What we know:
There is one protein chain. Helices cover 54% and strands 0% of the residues. The relative contact order is 0.04. The chain has helices at residues 2-12, 27-33, 36-44, 65-71, 75-83, 100-107, 110-118, 133-139, 146-158, 173-178, 182-190, 206-212, 216-224, 239-245, 249-257, 272-276, 282-295, 301-319, 325-339, 342-350, 366-372, 376-384, 399-405, 409-417, 434-437, 440-454, 460-485. The termini are far apart. The protein is built from 27 helices and no strands. It is an all-alpha fold and 494 residues long. The chain folds into three domains: 2-158, Alpha Horseshoe (Serine Threonine Protein Phosphatase 5, Tetratricopeptide repeat), CATH 1.25.40; 173-319, Serine Threonine Protein Phosphatase 5, Tetratricopeptide repeat (Alpha Horseshoe); 326-482, Alpha Horseshoe (Serine Threonine Protein Phosphatase 5, Tetratricopeptide repeat), CATH 1.25.40. α12 packs parallel to α14, α15 packs parallel to α18 (301-319) and α22 (376-384) runs parallel beside α24 (409-417). The radius of gyration is 29 Å and the shape is globular.
Amino acid sequence: MRRLLNTIACLAFALSAGCNTAPSTDIWTAARDGNVGLLEQHVAAGTDINGTLDMPGNPADGGSPLHAAVFANQLDAIDFLIAQGAEIDCRDSSETGASPLMWAAAFGNVEAAQRLITAGAAVNYVDNNGATALDATLMFEPNTNRESKAKIAQLLRDKGGQSSLAPVTIGDIWTAAATGNTAAISKHLDDGADVNGLEPTTRATPLLAAVTFGHTAAARLLLERQADLTLTNPDGNTALHLAALFAYPETVRMLLEKGANVAARNSRGQTALDTIAPPWSPAVKGLYDLIATTLRIPMDIQRIKAGRPQVAAILREKIGTASDSDTEATTDIVLAVTKGYVPSVKQYLDNGGNPDRREPLGNSPLLLVACLHGHADVAAALLTAGADVNLQNPDGETPLHVAVLVAYPEVVKVLLKHDADTTLKNNKGQLPNATVETPWQQIKPLYGFLGSILQMKFDTNRIEKERVIVAELLKTHATQKQTDQSPSPAADAP
């Protein structure tokens, strides 16, 4: 029967295309361009409509023709391919193994997503990374097409779509806690689950899972069943840190009532208040976007933005600090250092300000902030006032690490003049010169990643040129230091 149908199709196109002769334009390009006529010719010629493209650099690389049509939001092509029997949940050939619906979610193509869902696409299809289409709305370029992706996320939820972190079946206590299912939590505990057990992947306790998603009742139940308030995740964050960071006022109040330590510090040296004290800014928003992408969890930015001041007020009341003047003062000097306002920095120092003060968002010293933004004069002022030239941030980065990374020769000169230690390693075991010793094409993508986190735009053209100068400065410094340390020849030597 299939051969008969193919023969009939060939006869229908015999005058224009010739039987069994595919057009010169490949099927993926035809799908991406929405050229249904060419797609019809491919079908008539017997082209595999589920074949995947192997063409690195092509936007549809790894995808089937249906993937390609979805990528370009070509609705007529999508309808045609589905009608011709294209596999609607075809797994692309990349390492991800994403379905066409996941592509629609990732690129924010609402109409394509609607077509696929209507045609029966699996809304909870799981790719090779364990992600679903709902996760894809957050994981791929989360700052682009945000409104469209939010619409797709709602479409998916309306059809029962789940995040991979919140499966339909609650088979473990951590998922029960993360979804706020108190009945499931009780059953797991009654069946012998460890109330303080660590989730194998995230190393979080059930209590930490509950507060991350603001499930106050679930957190209270766990505490009543002897959950330990002092246990932390791998970053040293307690339940109070997480409830504060994700801005859940009710959860924060409950934890404080249960005896949470408001003075506890995480591995970055931050208290719960420190995590939400900085005023809202693009950098703060970027941090939440990064968390959403990394953890693959939905993030209600507007709720968090509104909740942060409420949480800060609750924590300050507990600490006994009703005013946020200290936070404002910190913000003022950090802004002055960031913008390179030398007179303001000098005034701060003349008034007894601490040159080694740390900014509240990343807990980095002011000198490192000055280096990041290329302000050699600000760096010099801080060092003259006694700033520690080798003071590290929580990641072990010294000001020299950062100045070399962003390739500001004048800043590097200032640091070396003040005896910056070129042998100190960061937490990854890297020396300050590691970034300029790495081939440019290999390290260039890092600046885009850092820019998205810090909400900064790095001039990679400048960095590419000036990193050569910085590398030479470091080599010259090392040679000079070696010469200075060499023993002088004896006075009576021949």
